[in-house]
Design brief:
By secondary structure, the chain is an all-alpha fold. It contains 7 helices and 2 strands; from the N terminus they run αββαααααα. A hairpin with a 7-residue loop joins β1 and β2. The longest helix is centred in the C-terminal third of the chain and has 39 residues. It is globular, with a radius of gyration of 19 Å. The protein starts with a helix and ends with a helix.
Amino acid sequence: MESTKTQKMVLAAMLAALGMILNLIEIPYPFAPWLNLDLSEIVVLVAISTLGFVPALFVCICKFFVSILFKGPVGPMAIGQIAALIASLSICVTYSLLARKIDPEKNLKNYLLDMVLTMLVFAFIMFVINYFFVTPTYLMQKPTWYTNLPFAVDIQAFNQQYGSNISIPKFLSFLSPYGQAIFIIYFPFNFIKGIITGTVYYLVRPVEKRFKSKYIKEA
């Protein structure tokens, strides 16, 4: 029992280090040039499947500290790493909870349903945290709540700042100009990131299963 727990913790630490390596492989997001897609969340899905929920949480936390150690704090108050930690935790918790009701191992339909729902929740959570404090903190370069922004922020401001050409669809008219900008930038970005992550993870699952059957002992 004790050796199994130690083995899982060692593998969790290795997955966290792998996540840091995958985080270095960035794919530019064409619609918002200051954002990059990466595949680091794959290690969270691998950890859930091979090690279980609690070790997967450990992987999320390890990723947070490994990133600070090797990259240094990103943004004021390490807001970049804090956002990444929330992203990992949202995927970890949502996918784990859904997997209890809809077994992703049963068939492709269940896997796709689990993954799409997980990434929709993930994208929505990232929209919320960017709306309330992540984006304001980046813009002000200090911890800032959205109500404390001293200037108006809308999609035109982002387009002028970064040379992008993002437009707001009519169905977002119920949001404020600030909310429209944050939603149209971050929700599609994170959902696309999530779907790419889920697709690549599906492709590596056969390797993961062979590894699990050979090296992971059930407690």
